[in-house]
């Protein structure tokens, strides 16, 4: 496993905040990508495997399902919580797929990996503490509370999108060694769905 493979050299790359939670990646002064301008696939619930294409920014900033997300967070019955979550739109933050969501149909990698930090897997850390450490990392382009409200997710730029899984393995080690935080192991899958 390549250690710290996702770290970005300050001499070559720079991530600049434009406004809260919006970042642009530059290489030698040339704009490479804005996190919100990358294409991803969005699916109508987790059983949809065909989906549509949209911009990552449209997916992340959508307010269309706020009432259902709040219902999910207030719900106490686990079966109903799961049903609500599974019915919400989901997207592949690491790229867009066509004609369906399979690794061999990856049309273009977004250049980002989405990591999940679940509260249940990290009982010694509050989500407020996790949020603080994510915000303090130079390599985190976007971070937010998970749809269920009991975890955090973050998007980080990848130096080598074609080595998605290897970079995730490095991040997993990095977060455990630096912070004692366990990342959701399924984040190494480029086809992984992120529920709103």
Structure in words:
It contains five helices and twelve strands. It has 196 residues and is an alpha+beta fold. Helix 2 packs antiparallel against helix 3 (78-87). The longest helix is centred in the C-terminal third of the chain and has 16 residues, at 164-179. Residues 1-23 have low confidence and may be disordered.
Note the topology.
Layout: E1 13-19, E2 22-27, E3 30-34, E4 39-43, E5 52-55, H1 56-60, H2 66-74, H3 78-87, E6 90-92, E7 95-97, E8 106-109, E9 112-118, H4 127-136, E10 142-145, E11 151-157, H5 164-179, E12 194-195
Antiparallel strand pairs: 1-2, 2-3, 4-5, 4-6, 6-12, 7-8, 9-11, 10-11
Helix pairs in contact: 2-3
Principal-axes geometry comes out as globular
Radius of gyration, whole Å? 16 Å
Give the helices and strands as they follow along the chain.
EEEEEHHHEEEEHEEHE
Question: Overall mean pLDDT score?
Answer: 84
What is the number of helical segments per DSSP (H or I, 4+ residues)? 5
Largest sheet, strands/sense/barrel: 4 strands, antiparallel
Number of strands: 12
Oligomer: single chain
N- to C-terminal distance: 31 Å
Helix percentage range: 25-40%
Query: Which structural category do the helix and sheet elements fall into?
Result: alpha+beta
How much of the sequence lies in strands comes to 25-35%
Biggest β-sheet: strands ordered side by side in the sheet: 5-4-6-12
pLDDT < 50 runs, ≥5 residues: 1-23
């Amino acid at each position: 496993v390549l250690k710290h493979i996702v770290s970005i050299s300050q001499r070559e790359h720079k991530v600049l905040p434009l406004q809260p939670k919006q970042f642009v990646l530059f290489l030698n002064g040339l704009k490479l990508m804005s996190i919100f301008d990358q294409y991803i696939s969005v699916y109508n619930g987790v059983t949809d495997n065909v989906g549509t294409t949209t911009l990552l920014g449209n997916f992340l900033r959508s307010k269309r399902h706020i009432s259902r997300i709040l219902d999910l967070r207030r719900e106490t019955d686990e079966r109903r919580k799961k049903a609500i979550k599974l019915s919400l739109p989901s997207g592949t933050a690491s790229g867009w797929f066509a004609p369906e969501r399979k690794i061999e149909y990856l049309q273009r990698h977004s250049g980002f990996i989405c990591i999940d930090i679940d509260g249940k897997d990290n009982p010694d850390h509050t989500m407020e503490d996790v949020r603080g450490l994510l915000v303090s990392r130079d390599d985190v382009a976007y971070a937010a509370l998970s749809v269920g409200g009991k975890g955090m997710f973050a998007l980080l730029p990848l130096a080598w999108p074609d080595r998605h899984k290897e970079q995730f393995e490095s991040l997993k080690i990095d977060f455990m060694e630096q912070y004692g935080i366990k990342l959701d192991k399924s984040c190494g899958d480029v086809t992984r769905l992120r529920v709103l």
